[in-house]
Amino acid sequence: MRGPTAPKITAVITHLTNADLHCHSVVSDGTLTPEALAVRAHANGVGLWALTDHDEVGGIARAAAAAKALGMPFLSGVEISVTFASRTVHIVGLGFDANDPALVQGLQRTRGGRGERAHEMSEQLARAGIHGAYEGALKYVGNPELISRTHFARFLVDSGVCADTHEVFRRFLTEGKPGFVPHRWASLGDAVRWITEAGGVAIIAHPARYPFSANEEFALFTDFKHHGGRGVEVVTGSHSAAEAAKYAELALEFDLLASRGSDFHSPDESHTDLGQLPDLPGQLQPVWEALQHRIQ
Ligand code: AMP
Ligand code: MN
Ligand code: MN
Ligand code: MN
Fold first, then answer.
1. Ligand nearest to the CA of 261
2. For ligand 1, is residue 122 a contact (CB within 6 Å)?
3. Which CATH number is correct for 19-111+184-294, 3.60.21.10, 1.25.40.10, 3.50.50.60, 3.20.20.140?
4. Atom of ligand 1 nearest to the CA of 148
5. What stretch of H or E contains 243?
6. Is ligand 1 within 6 A of the CB of residue 149?
7. Ligand 1 pocket, 55 CB below 6 A?
């Protein structure tokens, strides 16, 4: 005879759910495994979690299984690198089918070219007197297709060139500084379509972090909506209270759903831990209310 099965836990998701819908594992440029992130999110009281690795969905099955074992509601996630107006913009996707062929192939194309870019970054750093950066960065890489500036930043800190990652991105790896190699990522339209056609919702990540003029920002939001984008991150680890207030206004103006996520990468580097964020401003519609049916 079979024993009694555990009662199914039905999650109650509300405006005030401690949702953390943006973070990174070793599958991109985070330092924790998907399983360790799940444990940390759960311990910090996260009531709805998503893993959003850069240009990669390879960690989602592990994250979903770990979240399920903890009884923590979970959404699939990704953060896609996009080139818009000659700048890099990040688009978060949530609640999609992670096996969707067009999405998987699009992400694979987006990851392509990172290796060559990394070699060029290393050559530039060598010309600035910093040798062995490619090999140095590679030591921190968990996914060979996903060598990123973050891995170079870890090398520059651990080898004593810079005191912390903040100093790295002030002196290196950013526009006009040694180690910056411009790269052509996905188009805005492709990224939004891959996510949307796989059943998910596309979201503009950390909008305050882009060096856009007001006109360029308006164009980004307008084009994003035109392509079918539906949300914007209002509360994130990289927004001040004033920035969150500004994008709460823009969310209302553009009739966008609002998202909330720490952008946690590492216990040693991230200022905002998983689940440690202010609430969404009350008048906004949380993206997770529109994604109830996609929660695993
Ligand atoms: P990549 O996709 O290789 O261009 O690397 C981008 C990643 O570098 C971001 O996802 C962040 O993790 C990190 N990064 C970029 N700019 C900064 C910054 N100013 N401070 C800290 N980390 C940064
Ligand atoms: Mn990152
Ligand atoms: Mn980002
Ligand atoms: Mn991120």
1. 4
2. no
3. 3.20.20.140
4. 3
5. helix 241-253
6. yes
7. no
**C-beta of residue 104 within 8 angstroms of C-beta of residue 195:** no
Phi and psi for 165 in degrees, rounded to 5?
A: -65, -30
For the chain, give every residue range classified as CATH 3.20.20.140: 19-111+184-294
**Cβ proximity of 41 and 72 under 8 Å:** yes
Exposure letters 164-199 (e unless 16+ CB within 10 A, then b):
ebeebbeebbeeeebbeeeeebbebbbbbbbbbebb
Q: Does domain 114-171 have CATH number 1.10.150.650?
A: yes
Residue 81 near residue 107, CB atoms below 8 Å: no
Q: Tell me the residues surrounding ligand 3 (ion) with CB < 5 Å.
A: 90, 205
Domain boundaries for CATH 1.10.150.650 within the chain: 114-171
Q: Is the CB of 265 under 6 A from ligand 1?
A: yes
Q: Kind and range of the H or E element at 165?
A: helix 165-171
Give the closest residue (by CA) to ligand 1 atom 12: 150
Residue 152 C-alpha to ligand 3 middle, in angstroms? 16
The model scores a pTM over 0.70: yes
pLDDT given for residue 54 in this prediction = 98
Q: How confident is the chain (296 residues) per 10-residue block, as mean pLDDT?
A: 47 90 98 99 98 98 98 98 98 98 98 98 98 98 98 98 97 98 97 98 98 98 98 98 98 98 96 97 96 96
pLDDT computed for residue 218 by the predictor: 98
The pLDDT of residue 7 is 44
